[in-house]
Amino acid sequence: MRTKGLSESKETTLAGAWAVSVTDGWYVKPQAEVKFDHSEAISLKYPNVFSFETAIDPTYKIGLETGYAFESGLYLAGRYRYETTNVSAKLNVEGDNTKRTGDHTVKVHRTDLKVGYEMDFVDLNLNWVRKSTNEEVVLSGLGTIGAIDYAPNEFEFKATLTDFGALAPYAQYTYKPEYKINGVKLNPENEVKVGFLYSF
């Protein structure tokens, strides 16, 4: 079970991008990001059997986006992004005083397809996201104890206020349909995110 209270549901992202105009309305944008999750942790506990905990380092992302903006305010965009982060894991087995630890690197391939509409003071968009990864989890003394294999689809709805100059407050709702990790079915998730972007 993934546990994350409101006080721990915070993140900071530093991003850089450069839009290159190919033709009128069509652009290509290389980009890079680093995301810091505050108090990000995942834990699995089975009483009298074992506990498994992980801690996640900053996530590094590099991608390439292309899109077309129409004069009406409508725009279309597509992006591929590669994401990588290091995860440290700890396994405690009941009756065994030895704590097994290890690190592994999670590598995610992400694809986005976006349609949006930009008005005088607000930008509205819908984004389809597909992520995929296939990683082995390795602990010292145990070797490979399992694999992470999943490819979920997500849908993001985002509204950004654009009438505040360099500061852009936003609200985002993400729906994550039912999907499987290593054959284990996970329930749908709903995620709400609010924050602001500052550009310079």
Automatic annotation (TrEMBL):
Domain of life: Bacteria
InterPro entries: Bact_OM_Channel_sf, Oligogalacturonate-sp_porin
Organism: Vibrio maritimus
Keyword set, alphabetical order: Signal
Annotated protein name in UniProt: Uncharacterized protein
A Pfam family that the UniProt record links to this protein: KdgM
